[in-house]
Each structure stands twice: as structure tokens, then as C-alpha cells.
Amino acid sequence: MPSVISLIDDDPSVRTATNNLLAAYGYLVHTFASAEEFLRAAELSETSCVITDVQMSAMSGIDLLTHMRSLGHRMPFIFITAFPDDVVRARAIKAGGICFLAKPFATDALIKCLTIALSGSGGASA
Q1: Is the CB of residue 81 less than 8 Å from the CB of residue 100?
Q2: Euclidean distance between the first and the last CA atom of the chain, given in angstroms as a whole number
Q3: Are 122 and 116 in contact (CB under 8 A)?
Q4: Is 26 left (phi over 0), alpha (psi -120 to 50) or beta?
Q5: Residue partners of 125: CB distance under 8 A and separation at least 6
């Protein structure tokens, strides 16, 4: 049974490219244009790992992680951003993010983050 990855990004090209990449590695991927769309989705309960953009219009990726934790969900989060910033990275990792990747990210960096996230070993990476 492949791991289910929920990918949340308001940029359709990022969603498509990342979905294709992860599918090629054997992951089952569900894509969402916003945190709110993900929170309403049936796929939320089967998600093994969340990959989310940090900056989105209504709810940020960090706010989504905080909200998910308040609801009792413990799946790992990987943050991606086009605007890497040390302060935001620190907030994302402190909130519980496993990795923080700057767009465009290398394939091996994302796969390494997913391997760490799905192994349950935790550990923050850049």
C-alpha cells in the first residue's frame, strides 16, 4: 500500500510538477489549492504526510499545521516556499515541521524529507 501524500499549494504548476514527481516514486498523491480545501477533504484522514506551501492566501502552512495538531492529527509536515527566510523556517520547525525546502527544490531533497517523515524518525532539515 503506497503512502498517501497530501500536497497543498496555491500554485497549480507546483502542484502538477510535484504530483508527477511523487507519483513516479510510487506515492499516492492528493493535491489541494488551499489549506481550507484540504481540511474539508475526505483524504485528510488517510494522509501519511503533508507537503504544504508556507505562504498561502487565507491560511498559511504553519497555521494549518497548528490547526491540525489542535485537532489531534499527528502526520508529519514538510514545508516548501518560494520565499525562504530564517525566521519563517525557525517558526515552521518549532511548530513541528520535519523539513523546510526552498522552491525550486531538488528531487533528492524532497525524497529524503519524505523518507525521514514516513520513517517516523522526525528531525528538522533544510
Answers
A1: yes
A2: 28
A3: yes
A4: left
A5: 98, 99, 100, 109, 112, 113, 116
Phi, psi torsion values for 65, nearest 5 degrees:
-60, -45
Statement: the pTM of the whole predicted model exceeds 0.90: yes
In 3D space, the residue among 69, 78, 89 whose CA is nearest the CA of residue 122 turns out to be 78
d(Cα 21, Cα 68) in Å, to the nearest integer?
A: 26
β-bridge partners, 53: 80
pLDDT, one tens digit per residue, over 3-58 is: 999 999 999 999 999 999 999 999 999 999 999 999 999 989 999 999 999 999 89
Q: Are strands 49-53 and 4-8 parallel, antiparallel or unpaired?
A: parallel
Question: φ and ψ at 49, to 5 degrees?
Answer: -155, 145
Q: Considering Cα of 126, then 107, then 105, then 6, what sign does the dihedral take? A: negative
User: What cell numbers appear for 21 in the block?
Assistant: 514527481
Secondary structure element (H or E) that encloses residue 35, with its range: helix 35-40
